[in-house]
What does this fold into?
Amino acid sequence: MKLTLSVIKADIGSIGGHVAPSLELLETVGTYVGDRATGLLLDHYISHTGDDIAILMTHTRGVGDEQIHKLAWDAFLAGTAAARKQGLYGAGQDLLKDSFSGNVKGMGPAVAEMEIDERTSEPFLFFAADKTDPGAYNLPLYLAFADVMNTPGLILSPNIGRGFRFVIMDVNDTTGDRIIELNAPDELYDIAALLRDPERYVIESVWSRATGEQAVAVATSRLHNIAGKYTGKDDPVMLVRVQMNFPATGEVLAPYAIGHFVGGCMRGSHQMPLMPVTLNTGISYFDGPPIVSCAGFCVHNGKLTEPVDAFVQPFWNTVRDDVAQKAMEMRRQGFVGTAMLPMSELEYTGISEKLEALNKRFIVRKELPLLKPA
Ligand code: 13P
Ligand code: 13P
Ligand code: MG
Ligand code: MG
It folds into this structure.
């Protein structure tokens, strides 16, 4: 059957700063969606990662469907009202437009969706990250879908071995979706040349070259580009189909053991390592570290199994310890150099205003001090 997987997420308020939504807020969103699911959704799953709430939905209406997007938007509006009532911090933070206009794209919430021919068994992974931007998935996806050092399936399985097509978006272009399509492994170095800049070039989707099936959908919206100013980090969600013609679950998860440095964390303005965490984890150290959760599912005739927590297994405790060490090491560097994002990515205007004011006070010294003869 043709099935659509849609995940729409937003930060609509949290307890104790940008930490986690309240139970009441989660329940409000869940009840809103649950009450209106009949006839529209086949199934749904509500969760949070840090201060972001994600609504995962299965249905048959295709991607970008107005009714599906409106359901999520209205659920977030209902949630915002509950967040205001509780006095939560940043109530309605990611709802950047006043009225709904057909699709939540460009309105603040992040969206990842794909329409698929449901396989006999359809295992997939739902990733959600907080305190970072969509480029955080660049390296893990490159390794999983294009690097045989990470993914032995690329040489062991004939279909996987035919490679994958990467659709990469230039998220700095605010006039429209500026994309390029590149094939791995043939154009591996071209893909790498773009992905080295995860603040600008972001993998939007990945497709099997053997079958044409979509493997990955990433939410590529940049809040910074929509609002024109800092309103919070993008905190991207992602869907990845696994097994058979796609990499195995373990091949998709393996790159998260690196704890690679990503843009985000405190005030969205730093470089910090990405920590794989268990489902429904909050935020702490230095408004971070940036976190990523992963819920594995099988979906059958649109019905979701319960989620399996991909990062709860003991292996990831060691990774978390390593990432915590890396995070503290980077924080010893404070505000200097690599610890902060470059000027173009700084999410606050304070620093450019300061530099402008200081610039006026600079002088070019006219006379060089004379050296006194010995
Ligand atoms: P199973 O034999 O347990 O299905 O595992 C196959 C596989 O490819 C795991 O990576
Ligand atoms: P969020 O985007 O997760 O709300 O984080 C904002 C922030 O600046 C935390 O320091
Ligand atoms: Mg927030
Ligand atoms: Mg967030």
Notes: Residues 2-356 form one domain. Residues 11, 18, 50-52, 130, 233, 235 surround magnesium ion (ligand 4) (CB under 6 Å). The chain is about 25% helix and 25% strand. The mean pLDDT is 95.
